[in-house]
Known about the structure:
By secondary structure, this protein is mostly helical.
Amino acid sequence: MKNIYNPLHTAEILNRMEHLNPNSKPQWGTMNAAQMLAHCSAFQDIPMGNAFPPRDWLGRFIGRFVRSILFNDKPLPTGVPTISTIRILDDRDFETEKEILKQKILTFQSNGPEKCSSYPHPFFGKFTPEQWGKGIYKHLDHHLKQFSV
């Protein structure tokens, strides 16, 4: 399974991001491309130790039982609800959000697993650094596929 800690997998994600543009249309969901980039950036803040969203009540009950969807080679399903604290509803500047996300991805990858936060995922709960690496890759892949890249 691909992992954002792997430099080749990071390069693949960054290359795919270059194929996005402000007018890219989603295949599902309501976010535009700039909002999607801001959402992915906000998600990235959790394992980087920059954000501490509360655990979701439903996630406390079923999160650990369904978390395997992040750690296999199957694509994430479309229409999965977004964590409310990182749902982006306001307008954003595409180029700014793209650069912020790129820098966060590169920083996380270069910091390595030893600097990954132990703060739990708001829905799925506690992850190891290796699980965060796989989950981040899969989350970014999901949203890039959302915009056909």
